[in-house]
Design a protein that fits this description.
Layout lengths: L6 H16 L3 H7 L4 H8 L34 H12 L1
Amino acid sequence: MSEVPNPIRKEYMAHIDKQKLSGLSIKKYCEQNNLIEHKFSYYRNYKPKPQKLEKPHSSFAPVKIVETKLPKSRGNIDPVWLAKFVKSVME
């Protein structure tokens, strides 16, 4: 999850070095370069947030979907079919 480039931040970051070299105060530099002073100060103190590593959700179990046809009889379920069904679910 990398940080998306922000064109405004990039512009202000370029001006920060220029302001230091100019010898002008932040207020004067911003006036001369049509910059917003509070944004200049914000980006001057800007520090990117550390990236968090996403952990896999260990509380979830993988699920395998298996197509199964139910027996057509309405009576008792065939034990052989039931055993095959349970085995396929457990895999």
